[in-house]
């Protein structure tokens, strides 16, 4: 699992049903690569979170039928990027 | 999941039968070009969300569909320049139309 920072939300109306009503967040790795993740915990921009990727991400949303390969597992209480 | 830009359709007549009739699109992930199965009907120039691993197979058709990258959504608004700023660390929100979900 990796540590990433939430940068903002992503609005995507035209999408497959497999996404159900999942919130989509834009995440940034410490190295600066952007990616999109499902958010069952409700993180806000600036939060540092840890994520589950691959097929584990599908189970992390609570509904294994969702089509995701990256899901936010939780919001980290205290985290400094170089820490 | 990746944010990619659809470049053009990929036409491959001589391909394995498991791909059935699904459309393939050439997508641009940053600077690398990849091939993704199109599950939503994107057109060239669209900014889309692509998913990988086992979700890509199910999004494309069935659990045994031979895809490792599938387009699952077309982004409403996406500004590549604002995205570069975000990659640098400023939590701007290029995709929030004015007044939607106060993610500021």
Structural class of chain B: alpha+beta
Helical residue percent band of chain B: 10-25%
Order of helices and strands of chain A: EEEEEHE
Whole-number mean pLDDT of chain A: 91
Query: Beta-sheet strand percentage of chain A?
Result: 35-45%
* Count of DSSP H/I helices of chain B: 2
The order of strands across the largest sheet of chain A is 4-3-1-5-6
Series of H and E elements of chain B: EEEEHEH
Oligomer: heterodimer
Rounded mean pLDDT score of chain B: 86
Structural class of chain A, please? mainly beta
DSSP strand (E) fraction of chain B?
25-35%
Low-pLDDT stretches of chain A: none
**Whole-Å distance between the termini of chain B?**
22 Å
Give the strand order, joined by hyphens, for the main sheet of chain B.
Answer: 1-2-3-5-4
Contiguous helical run count of chain A: 1
Percent in helix of chain A: under 10%
Biggest sheet statistics of chain A: 5 strands, antiparallel
């Amino acid at each position: 699992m990796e540590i990433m920072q939430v940068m903002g939300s992503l609005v995507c109306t035209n999408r497959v049903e497999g996404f159900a009503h999942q919130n989509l967040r834009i995440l940034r790795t410490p190295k600066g690569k952007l990616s999109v993740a499902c958010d069952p915990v409700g993180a806000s921009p600036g939060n540092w979170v840890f994520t589950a990727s691959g097929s584990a991400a599908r189970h992390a949303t609570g509904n294994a039928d969702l089509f995701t390969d990256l899901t936010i597992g939780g919001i980290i209480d205290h985290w400094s990027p170089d820490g | 999941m990746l944010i990619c830009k659809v470049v053009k359709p990929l036409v491959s007549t001589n391909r394995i039968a498991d791909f059935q009739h699904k459309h393939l699109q050439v997508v641009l992930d940053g600077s690398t070009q990849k091939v993704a199965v199109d599950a939503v009907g994107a057109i060239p120039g669209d900014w889309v969300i692509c998913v990988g691993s086992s979700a890509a197979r199910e999004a494309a058709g069935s659990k045994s569909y031979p895809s490792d990258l599938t387009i699952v959504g077309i982004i409403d608004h996406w500004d590549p320049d604002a995205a570069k700023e975000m990659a640098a660390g400023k939590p701007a929100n290029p995709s929030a139309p004015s007044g939607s979900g106060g993610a500021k």
